[in-house]
Amino acid sequence: MSKYFQFVIIIFYTAFFVGGFFVAIGAAGMLHKPVRDTVVFMTIAVWLLCSFSVAGLMTDGWLLFREVRRPVREEEQRIRKCLDKIQERAGRPAKYSLRIQEEKGPNSFAIGPHTIVVTSGALEALADDELTAILAHGFGHLQTNDGTAAMAFACTDWLPGEIHFFSGKIGAFACRRSARYFLSLPARMSTVSGLIRSLIRSLILAVMTGWMGWRFHIFRYLLATIAFIMLTWIIRIVFRRLWLLNCRQSEYRQDEFVHGLGLGPELRKALLKIGAKSPGKINFLYLLASTHPLVPGRVRRLERLEAHRAPAG
């Protein structure tokens, strides 16, 4: 899968969401004349520009609320020695900043345009060659702008995510209230007076709802809103699944990049140590919802690249 696929996902996600919004307000009769194509395209362009512009700020915000710190001198010297070796082999000088995350598990990841985060557990558990390998993996993510794309996708997904969250809360509240009302009907209608009160209340509610719908065109707005929310749910589910697929393929791609630098065996050893700390949930739902492939699968791929294992038939 191409490294540009992630940007295609972001562009189409934005286009479908913005297009659905204009279709919804048009169906509700809120537009007195058709929207020009230039307006739609400009809206998509501005949305994308904001998403990619905010990506750097989101990185700083994410780091601000995590247990992340700058490395002390000994840590920085060790990490930069590894990164210098990587840049020498790759022949690609890069600008990067280093952060240490206080976590016992060995791990390293790239975030944003130029930030590499290493856990304190990685510094303790990994040898220098293994540390170089997982840093090379993060270096590869920076080279293909995966961290920037991830933050841009998070910005693009923010408003659809909020719509998804609050509409779900409102729907759940309405369902609970409706269930409570209908379950209490037998008790209310057990007497003649209770039956009459319930019928009168229902009739008044139906008349008021019908009058407001006719007078203020509420039904049209309501149907357009519900249709837009349902469309947003579908679009978000589809594109988030595509994004997760892209993330997993990106991990494989960076593993191949590390192998190309001659650090495949070292990465394989580091992954086995990282995998030993993971819960190892192996099921279909995990594979669909995970941003990373299972460690055994990554190790097997590296073994095939190193010719220790025959290609999968």
Features:
313 residues, mainly alpha, 74% helix, four-stranded mixed sheet
List the helices and strands and how they pair.
Elements: H1 5-27, H2 37-64, E1 68-69, H3 73-90, E2 97-101, E3 108-111, E4 115-119, H4 120-125, H5 128-143, H6 146-188, H7 192-216, H8 218-260, H9 264-276, H10 284-289, H11 295-305
Helix pairs in contact: 1-2, 1-6, 1-8, 2-6, 3-5, 5-8, 5-9, 6-8, 8-11, 9-11
Q: How would you describe the overall organization of this protein?
A:
By secondary structure, this protein is mostly helical. It has one domain. It contains 11 helices and 4 strands. It has helices at residues 5-27, 37-64, 73-90, 120-125, 128-143, 146-188, 192-216, 218-260, 264-276, 284-289, 295-305; strands at residues 68-69, 97-101, 108-111, 115-119. A hairpin with a 3-residue loop joins strand 3 and strand 4 (115-119). Helix 1 (5-27) runs parallel beside helix 6. The model has no long low-confidence stretch (mean pLDDT 83).
Flag low-confidence runs: none
Q: Give the overall average pLDDT.
A: 83
Q: Sketch the topology as an H/E string, one letter per element.
A: HHEHEEEHHHHHHHH
Percent helix range: over 70%
Number of strands: 4
Concise overview:
This protein is mainly alpha-helical and 313 residues long. It has helices spanning 5-27, 37-64, 73-90, 120-125, 128-143, 146-188, 192-216, 218-260, 264-276, 284-289, 295-305, and strands spanning 68-69, 97-101, 108-111, 115-119. It has a 4-stranded mixed sheet with strand order 1-2-4-3.
